[in-house]
């Protein structure tokens, strides 16, 4: 469906059952859940899908080791349930999107014998809570094995380690895959479409006045119910409904830095259980690079938060404590910052103590807001939101929720050896085949076919991203801007800003051909993407 067709369908007079505002994890999941139940569903996102928080995570699918520690220490049932739900949903996500998610072993280094029973007992409880959805048992490993699994570890004083398992995934591609799957279920989804105001009749919300940020066109989208799933921006949407409403969220910033692959083994991550200020730090392999994060500081809510120098220094300082390798800012290939939407608690001393659980509330005029949460539990949050919407707006779905066993696009007919099939059938390089297989799953042959038709060159010699992907994501994944392609569909800019900058001209040329851009539009894309690289992705 072209953008013109999408906007035409949004404008139709016949109201939707649900209009979802927000194209992050929660909004995309809600649109998929609603559409799969047979509800007439629309979704709008003011930027690109997952342009904010949902493409800037630590890329882990997890129950939350830190939350479990808080649950035990404070006998906090909310935190306990959050962990249990997260571990169940971790299993669901790995099953429904095997091309985007995988099991990852992690080592926790221990430099004091006193830490061994405490950390081991906590991770064993983590395993027990996972139940039948467990993905591997924790165990104590010797100093020798810890160093074998993670050779970069500082060996001096190392006593032992604990090995445990969590999930890892590609968050940006997960979001666009949810959108694509929702589209196949009948949802109409539009990125770069901003909600300007909520429309009311007789005091009840009946839709939203919106603007296409690419063309500037304004129009109305009618709906029987509106779901506010705007992540850190939910209070902005709530103020459209009630200007003086009290906020329900605070935000914290979390930055990540990306280093060359030599700083991490290819198949094992590192979990540092307690930094100088009591936080958890991860050093992970991700798409052939080392991903390190994260921080947790109170933050202002803005579209593109910038990483702060002191946050980068914080991460580098802690890496140096645990690595035998010297790491400086010159080794950083990319940095980004994201906002976490945290439920507001005036009594909490700091944002690290605010629960990542979610709440749902409905205003007097019918705005349904879902706020909080995290990527791992996006599906449960979406199910809860649609359940509430069905009751609140008196909707009649054709089916019950079944997203816990709904394969996402790319998971149908997925096979583990799909990369070998791509090598055999399309004569692709091994790293390119692996990249396409892990990014597109069973849809990868469509990309490979485009490569065979003349779009097979790499966008940068050091990376497996190829020209065919640009055409594919424009045609099938609603990529409308150069940044949509380079930051979120291929994630090249998240891995290597310099390489993304070098690839931008070729990406814009392919997009111009696909979307019939003129030179002024091409120049506008060059300028916008260059600005993103210099400021904040």
Measured by DSSP, the beta-strand proportion falls in: 15-25%
In angstroms, what is the radius of gyration?
Answer: 23 Å
User: What fold name stands as the CATH topology of the domain at 3-54 and 172-247 and 354-405?
Assistant: FAD/NAD(P)-binding domain
Please state the average pLDDT score: 94
Classified in CATH, the superfamily of the domain at 3-54 and 172-247 and 354-405 is: FAD/NAD(P)-binding domain
Number of helices: 18
Give me the secondary-structure category. Answer: alpha+beta
> Mind telling me which CATH architecture of the domain at 3-54 and 172-247 and 354-405 this is?
3-Layer(bba) Sandwich
3D shape: globular
DSSP, total strands: 18
> According to CATH, what is the class of the domain at 3-54 and 172-247 and 354-405?
Alpha Beta
End-to-end Cα distance, whole Å, is 27 Å
The biggest sheet, with number of strands, parallel, antiparallel or mixed sense and barrel status, is: 10 strands, mixed
Poorly predicted regions are 346-355
Helix content: 25-40%
Cofactor: FAD
Keywords: FAD, Flavoprotein, Oxidoreductase
Enzyme class: oxidoreductase
Protein name: Glycerol-3-phosphate dehydrogenase
